[in-house]
Specification:
With 115 residues, this protein is mostly beta strands. Helices cover 0% and strands 52% of the residues. Strands 2, 4, 5, 6, 9, 10 and 11 form a seven-stranded mixed β-sheet that branches. Strands 1-3-8-7 form a four-stranded antiparallel β-sheet, with no helix packed on it.
């Protein structure tokens, strides 16, 4: 029943900004741990940021200070604000929700940082 749909990806120059959105069907954002992952070609998928239902937030060291995760419970949506983007941020970004044993993944959205 639950679907996660990412949007907001695209091409941006180094130093630019982008905001990703993850819209969930079903009221799960407020009661789940929501997270953003990314996977670059030839690399393993890595956790970028997460926010728990209680509001605890964690970031990967590589994005700390540049990325911001947030959620809007009324809209059932989680966001990833990405500032000061670097070429190394280029990857497919995935949204994930976890509540107990229920795990859902979005299809991903491409982010390319290049001149």
């Amino acid at each position: 029943q639950v679907q996660l749909v990412e949007s907001g990806g695209g091409l941006v120059q180094p130093g630019g900004s982008l905001r990703l959105s993850c819209a969930a069907s079903g009221s799960i954002v407020s009661i789940s741990t929501m997270a953003w992952y990314r996977q670059a070609p030839g690399k393993q998928r890595e956790l970028v940021a997460q926010i728990t239902s209680g509001g605890r937030i964690n970031y990967a060291d590589s994005v700390s200070g540049r990325f911001t995760i947030s959620r809007d419970n009324a809209k059932n949506t989680v966001y990833l604000q990405m500032d000061s983007l670097k070429p190394e941020d280029t990857a497919v970004y995935y949204c994930k929700s976890v509540r107990g044993f229920n795990i859902y993944w979005g299809q991903g959205t491409q982010v390319t940082v290049s001149s």
